[in-house]
Amino acid sequence: GAGVSQSPRYKVAKRGQDVALRCDPISGHVSLFWYQQALGQGPEFLTYFQNEAQLDKSGLPSDRFFAERPEGSVSTLKIQRTQQEDSAVYLCASSRDRWKETQYFGPGTRLLVL
Amino acid sequence: AQKVTQAQTEISVVEKEDVTLDCVYETRDTTYYLFWYKQPPSGELVFLIRRNSFDEQNEISGRYSWNFQKSTSSFNFTITASQVVDSAVYFCAPYQGGSEKLVFGKGTKLTVNP
Fold first, then answer.
1. B-interface mutation test, from A30, A46, A105, most B Cβ less than 10 A away
2. How confident is the model at residue A41, as a pLDDT?
3. d(CA A105, CA B47)
4. pLDDT (tens digit, 9 = 90+) per residue, B37-81?
5. Buried b vs exposed e over B45-82: b needs ≥16 C-beta within 10 Å?
6. Is B106 near chain A, with CB under 8 Å?
7. Is A48 in contact with B101 (Cβ distance < 8 A)?
8. Are A62 and A74 in contact (CB under 8 A)?
9. Cβ–Cβ contacts within 10 Å for residue A75, how many?
10. Which residues of chain A carry a pLDDT beneath 50?
């Protein structure tokens, strides 16, 4: 595709609800990243995939956060039992290969937990 | 540990002024990669430039130029003849050593007034 796409663009959830955020990377990109951006802050790393393998999940804030990329292309970030502190923009990025390649970002999903 | 500092929180200029955004990256790594991204009000992170630690040549792209000085750990970004469309938050982001995660500074919010 032309760029990284994410859906939905906006999501309002009630506290305790489960949500699933989708990312479609640039076609052919091997690596996929998820970042969380709180209001007024820079993005913070959550997790990283190379193809279908999740190689780094050190940034996931709790075991309520789960990410998958089963076929090495589309990825889903799932948040279980959402809390108000989960409210943020969730950014997905992809890169052509591994090893310090340029990451291209999608438009993000803005999650609001009430 | 790596540390990226964008000391300027907000900058406001009048259209056609030149403006320089500062970034200082502290690391013990001898090889590293640095990026600048732009985040306009729409929210999408837009890639601007990628540089590595062994290439200290300055780079110019249209109205944008970058000055990388390894001796002072600085990677500054200058916009010449600023325009209203340059209004955005600008992030400096190195790859964290030994990983594939970008570490973002807090960003500098640039406002260009007509």
1. A105
2. 92
3. 8
4. 999 998 899 999 888 877 777 778 889 988 888 888 888 999 999
5. beebbebebeeeeeeeeeebbbebeeeebebbbbbeeb
6. yes
7. yes
8. no
9. 25
10. none
